[in-house]
Design brief:
With 164 residues, the protein is mostly beta strands. It has one domain: Ureidoglycolate hydrolase (Jelly Rolls). It is built from one helix and 17 strands. Strands 2, 9, 12, 14 and 15 form a five-stranded mixed beta sheet that branches.
Length: 164
Amino acid sequence: MSGPEIRAEPLTAEAFAPFGDVLEAAGAPDRIINAGLCGRFHDRARLDFGPDGRAAISLFDAEPRTLPHTCDLLERHPLGSQAFLPMTGHPFLVIVAPDDGGTPGAPRAFLTAPYQGINFLRNTWHGVLTPLHAPGLFAVVDREGPGTNLEEHVLEKPCVVVAA
């Protein structure tokens, strides 16, 4: 049984704000550093590792997918945020959903521009890492520490994400 068809919309900071942060070097840098040779786009993510967690940086190498893409699993991290920073210039697919009483609500899909990353806020329902091109190599900044920081929800009716 198939669920709704979702059109992937372009990733913008305004549209993505309820779910997290768009990480990109857009506009003028906040600061010029390193003797004037480097623009710093400062403090672009609301990182959250809870009172007993710490930041961990990992590398993920995910298999690329294609559109249309069937999404049947969403997950969230109740103890901390999770940032995905692509290590290539290829766009990737981001699927999110608001919380609806402890389960995912209606999903939305975003297609990143080249060199955009994202940071999911704590407790944000989201699809798994979904690169659209090889290699699917990402730096991931998330929480390390005690407690269970992963909840998964299998969608009764998977959604199908199509291009805009």
